[in-house]
Design brief:
alpha+beta
Length: 292
């Protein structure tokens, strides 16, 4: 496809990184920085991913590269999320959702799930420009997930997670529970994934568990909750990617955070239902282009 439109593509393979973001810096080969700085489009298919690393930061500062964080997306997932003419519909749905939530900074958000999540927080203004269509340099995400950022000190409650990325991405045999009061106070549950998550939280938080730094809402009608592909799972209808650790905009952050997923969420804004068991209510739905 790149050749067909006059591009000169290349593929660079690196060993799988043990960590993501700034924690990946010691493991990235110098050739990667040179290659990334010389390109116009960078599709990152690494997981753990390179975004947040020093190499990524330098390339983004140059202001000429369009970077997309595709991570662990495989061919079948790529076709579901980006093929069959679905992208315009998904982008319209995202814009409608964001148009209803962006002006509501300062509102109280409550999120529940059938497995027992019950968490509340104050909605913050987005910390970054939301780039959708890749018409200019910058950092892009695969479409299909909308951010619901908290004032990080305001998060209170419990979050029951079903899949987790600690040092790798996996489905949990038994859900784990995060107990939060401003900071993450404890991880409740048992098994090896609890130990891995606690270790990842301490590493990402500089010796402490850190915070919940983002919530999301998946709106992609073709995405599947697979349990083995984080990028697709968090875009499935009603799924929520819960980012844990330190915010990327604060010293020591750099996207060094574990992520967890919960599904079939319900969301309220100041007591008004925004999402009901995964599906957007009339408050959030684009009336010109509704989704079921």
């Amino acid at each position: 496809a790149a050749i067909a439109i006059g591009g000169r593509p290349s593929v660079l393979l690196v060993p799988q990184l043990p960590y993501q973001g700034k924690l990946a810096d010691p493991y990235l080969p110098p050739t990667l920085g040179s290659a990334a700085a010389a390109c116009n489009v960078w599709i990152d298919l690494t997981y753990p991913y390179i975004a947040g690393s020093e190499v990524h930061a330098r390339v983004m500062e140059q202001g000429k590269v369009r970077y997309v964080l595709a991570s662990d997306l495989d061919g079948a997932g790529l076709e579901r999320l980006c093929g069959n003419g679905v992208l315009e519909h998904v982008l319209d749905t995202m814009e409608a959702f964001n148009a209803r939530t962006a002006p509501r900074a300062g509102s109280t958000v409550r999120i529940t799930t059938p497995l027992g999540t019950d968490v509340s927080y104050t909605l913050a203004a987005s910390k970054a420009k939301n780039l959708r269509r890749a018409t200019e340099p910058g950092m892009y995400m695969v479409p299909g997930s909308c951010g619901l950022y908290p004032e990080i000190d305001s998060v209170v409650g419990r979050i029951v997670i079903e899949t987790v990325f600690h040092e790798f991405y996996t489905t949990l045999q038994r859900p784990l529970v995060l107990n939060i009061d401003g900071r993450i106070r404890s991880v409740e549950g048992s098994g090896p994934d609890k130990d891995l998550l606690e270790r990842a939280l301490l590493r990402a938080g500089g010796g402490q568990f850190g915070y919940v730094i983002h919530f999301t809402h998946g709106v992609h009608p073709m995405a599947r909750l697979r349990g083995d592909c984080f990028v697709e799972d968090i875009r499935a209808i009603g799924c929520n990617a819960v980012g844990l650790g330190l915010p990327w905009w604060e010293p020591g952050g750099g996207e060094n955070h574990p992520d967890a997923v919960m599904s079939a969420q319900s969301v309220w804004l100041d007591g008004e239902p925004l999402v009901d068991a995964g599906h957007m209510t009339p408050l959030a739905r684009d009336q010109r282009n509704p989704i079921p």
